[in-house]
Amino acid sequence: MDMTTFWPLLQKKVDTMIERIGSKSPHVDKEGVYDDFRLDWWTSGFWPGILWIMYDMTKDEKYSRHAWEWDSKIEACFLQENNFHHDVGFQFLPTAVAKYRMTGDKDGRRRGLQAANFLAGRFNLAGRFLRAWNQEKHGWAIIDSSMNLSLLLWAAEEIADSRFKQAAMAHADTVLEYFIRNDGSVRHIVSFDPDTGAFLESLGGQGYSPTSAWSRGQAWAFHGMANVYRYTREQRYLDAAKRVAHYFMAQTAVDPIPLWDFRTGDADLQLKDTSAASCAASGLIEIADLVPGEEAHLYRNQALRIMEALTERYAVLDHSRESILREGTGNKPAEQNVNVGLIYGDYFYVETAAKLMNWKNRIF
Ligand code: GLY
């Protein structure tokens, strides 16, 4: 894949998206048009994240102008009834924190730190995990949180307060102990007794079953653990990231684009999740950047294989759809957002392309 000829095409697509998406908060594209979804929803940071990456790559102020208000709009949800939860990292890292890192904006810093405080406040001391979701699910932890740990690790460095790092590492250690199986596959949800922290059961969640391997969850896990290693340099997180990545690569040896779950029943064998693919590609480059040169090829080549397959078979770079990637799977067990464009799939596709163009700054 020749990135120097591909990148301008991607940039042109994002320019088209700016015109078409306007002030919408895009989440799902079902028939060529993105919806306009709730700002407190976990996906609201991804479109501005695409814009911040474009800004960082080009320094064209068109992108920062369109991205600028998002952290303030998302923050405003804190002042009303909202459903913010474990995924605030997905919302504030690609908006507030990215803005602060790229422009020095003090409000971005403040909002990022406020979100980190909120996330740290979800820590369950008895079970050493960040609780998932809200409502009655007091003892639930989920693999998606792995990607949100970067918010705590950033805050720890930003204000030199190791409490945030302690909470992130404690949660990551719980992931190592309870989520990642010996074969490198990963559970989606683990339920703990919220008072004692004792393990109760694992649940299928967005995966096929409690014993299955939801492909986006595998990608969240190894990308997330690679991030934790980048911040902490504790070898066990890199080892875990590699183990899960190896499982993912084995499952995608024939076709680099994963099924929505690697252990589904026969009937589902054609259903892909391109968002798992793009997140995995970004995570594989992360691992490649963290291991010695002779090891890095394996991960970088697989990321390239994924990007080539996505670009040839699933990417729409013309005006015919607002989203970039077709055939994302949001939540198959709930039959929600199946075979659609997903803004997080698009985000990680752009992020991976930037990384392949040697972009060295990081959002997660
Ligand atoms: N964080 C929810 C998901 O991956 O679908």
Automatic annotation (TrEMBL):
Substrate binds at D87, D144, R216, W220. Signal peptide: none annotated. It holds the Pfam family Glyco_hydro_88. The keyword Translocase does not apply. The keyword Protease does not apply. Keywords: Hydrolase. InterPro entries: 6-hairpin_glycosidase_sf, 6hp_glycosidase-like_sf, Glyco_hydro_88, UG_Glycosaminoglycan_Hydrolase. The active site is at D87, D144. GO terms for molecular function: chondroitin hydrolase activity. GO terms for biological process: polysaccharide catabolic process. Belongs to the glycosyl hydrolase 88 family. This is Glycoside hydrolase family 88 protein. The lineage of its organism: Bacteria, Bacillati, Bacillota, Bacilli, Bacillales.
